[in-house]
Amino acid sequence: EAAGKAGTTVTTVIEGRNLYGGTVTVSAEGVTVSTTNSVNPTQLPVTFVIAQDAVVGKHSITVTTAAGTAQ
To answer: Can you tell me the distance from the alpha carbon of 66 to that of 50, in angstroms, rounded to the nearest whole number?
Structure first.
């Protein structure tokens, strides 16, 4: 679980399996997400940029890889 405040950038690592080439989407208006290449199949570095006017609250993220999709 990661948390951040409006107007900030949060970097975290998603852990799992088969994460090479993974992409991440987020269900929040005002939050953009980017991933960097995974250095191993069990970790996916992710950066969330939270706009000043982003919707407050918990939001779902979806990770998609060649092996499938997880939320």
So the answer is: 27
